[in-house]
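In the design runs reported in the main text, the only information available to the sequence generator was the tokenized backbone. The following block is the verbatim input for one such run; it is reproduced so that readers can re-run the procedure and compare outputs position by position.
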């Protein structure tokens, strides 16, 4: 972070007219949303595209932001690195000029490590910070009594889809009667056709 602030302050004092990416810089480890800072305030600016690629395949670019005019400040884009897998990446800025030429700015060796827990600094206490001894008197506590908890059984509601022997005989007789009527009607149709 301090390195990025130093680069930004140098940028404001230098006011270069060359396109550049000031942050992130080569070799940095990136996590989460990363602000990409750079300079597009150059003479004869036509358009620009900010993209990234895998370090192993710098021919396939994935667009982050396109620019049809010079941005108002040096904050070019916010890159959400949680949308890509952890690995090594390259940042590309291609600036097109009004005369048809272009210039590429490349920041390589960017390490995206969202799945890794960052190492935290541990400090050792100095003599001024030496921890004070803590003394405490502990009294014995009563052991909690464990009461077993058993679930109480609940009765299930009656099944609305019950079949009784009476209903089976009813539907069997009804089906047989319908079959007899259909056969009778079919026989009558055949008899009238012969005549």
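Verbatim output:
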């Amino acid at each position: 972070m301090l390195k990025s602030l130093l680069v930004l302050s140098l940028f404001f004092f230098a006011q270069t007219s060359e396109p550049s990416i000031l942050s992130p810089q080569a070799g940095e480890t990136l996590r989460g949303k990363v602000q990409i800072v750079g300079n597009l305030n150059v003479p004869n600016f036509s358009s620009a595209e900010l993209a990234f690629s895998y370090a192993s395949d710098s021919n396939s670019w994935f667009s982050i932001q396109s620019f049809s005019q010079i941005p108002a400040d040096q904050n070019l884009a916010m890159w959400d690195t949680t949308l890509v897998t952890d690995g090594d990446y390259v940042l590309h800025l291609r600036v097109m000029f009004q005369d048809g030429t272009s210039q590429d700015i490349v920041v390589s060796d960017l390490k995206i490590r969202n799945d890794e827990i960052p190492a935290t600094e541990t400090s050792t206490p100095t003599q001024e910070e030496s921890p004070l001894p803590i003394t405490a008197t502990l009294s014995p506590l009563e052991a909690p009594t464990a009461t077993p908890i058993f679930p109480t059984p609940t009765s299930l509601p009656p099944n609305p889809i019950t079949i009784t022997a009476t209903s089976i005989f009813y539907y069997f007789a009804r089906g047989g009667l319908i079959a007899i009527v259909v056969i009778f009607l079919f026989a009558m149709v055949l008899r009238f056709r012969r005549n």
